[in-house]
Design goal:
25 strands; Immunoglobulin-like; mainly beta; 5-stranded antiparallel sheet; 2 domains; Jelly Rolls; 8-stranded antiparallel sheet
């Protein structure tokens, strides 16, 4: 009995010790500077600006960023030397030069001080304010479907296939029937058991299946801050019945007064005609407002009414080598 009681005493002491140690650790964490934030891999990078996505840390009350033209951060950009950034997970770097490397690092801060510098990330600006992979050459292979790279820029409703490949059809395909290069995108409208029409489409944004409201599965558009003058590329179209395709780029921005996205400009084209050979589309942007957008939404849909589940099964669009053009400066 004495031995048993002794074990109980030892156990109690250990529990108290662990509790004190835990409380001490929490107190130390409370009285310490935060950990360093994480700068995400480059994604929305253009010719004259780029967006930096980042992940914050617990306990931070402010975040600061450095942008430099060298990996040692000896040559800082004037406006991005210890610049405080809004706590929303993204900021824009402007005034940069096309086809140039830049380096980004961040710090978190609270009342107890600043974190160490985060690991830096290299951003290489593009030749112009264009989206990546507009030639549809780069694709990612998943178990049940393929999707154009990179994730976070190009998407489709192909993720529905993962729910049940025997029920839900693939809607966007990589095809070697290309205008130039090795590949193009092919989108085919189809249906699934128990569901309305699923339009075959390629678009910018993210797609995560929402079975409660399928229309809310798509997060439309990606960050963008330019005013192109034309939207061009090559397509083929094979409609079923009276279906029509839609090729569109919309430029929008958030209106803080109305709490909604407002349309800044748009280039759009629809046709019911069969287009058997790759044909140039050359669309002029029509602008409705002054100033710059904050989002670009690019869509190639085999069924123009697909947003409302209207269209025909089997309508097919091919798209390749599309681009945006700008006024000469």
């Amino acid at each position: 009995m004495i031995f048993k009681n002794f074990n109980l005493v030892i156990l109690a002491v250990l529990i108290v010790s662990l509790s004190i140690s835990s409380c001490k650790k929490e107190q130390e964490d409370t009285n310490s500077p935060p950990s360093a934030p994480l700068v995400s891999d480059p994604l929305h990078v253009y010719g004259e600006y780029f967006f930096v996505n980042w992940i914050g840390v617990t306990g931070a009350t402010a975040y600061y960023a450095d942008v430099a033209t060298d990996a040692d951060f000896n040559n800082m950009l004037a406006d991005y030397d210890n610049m405080e950034v809004a706590i929303n997970g993204m900021f824009i770097v402007e005034g940069v030069i096309p086809v140039t490397k830049y380096y980004v690092r961040m710090r978190a801060q609270n009342a107890n001080g600043s974190s160490i510098n985060s690991l830096s990330k290299e951003f290489t600006t593009r030749v112009a304010d264009l989206l990546p992979n507009m030639g549809m050459e780069d694709w990612i292979d998943y178990p049940n479907y393929e999707s154009p790279a990179p994730v976070g820029v190009w998407t489709s409703a192909n993720k529905v296939v993962d729910l049940n490949p025997t029920i839900y059809p693939q809607l966007l395909f990589r095809t070697d029937d290309a205008y130039s290069g090795s590949f193009a995108a092919k989108a085919v409208s189809n249906i699934a058991i128990g569901m309305p029409l699923l339009t075959g489409s390629l678009s910018t944004g993210l797609f995560n299946v929402n079975l409660n409201d399928f229309l809310k599965s798509m997060i439309i558009g990606v960050p963008y801050k330019s005013r192109p003058v034309r939207f061009q590329g090559y397509y083929k179209y094979f409609p079923e019945g009276n279906d029509s395709c839609e090729i569109r780029t919309s430029l929008t921005r958030w209106n803080f007064s109305t709490g909604e996205q407002e349309k800044v400009g748009e280039a759009i084209y629809r046709t019911q005609d069969t287009i058997s050979d790759y044909t140039l589309f050359d669309l002029e942007f029509v602008y409705f407002r002054e100033g710059y957008p904050d989002t670009i939404d690019m869509v190639f849909a085999a069924s123009a009414g697909g947003e409302y589940f209207i269209g025909e099964v089997g309508s097919t669009i091919f798209v390749d080598d599309f681009t945006l053009t700008f006024e000469q400066k």
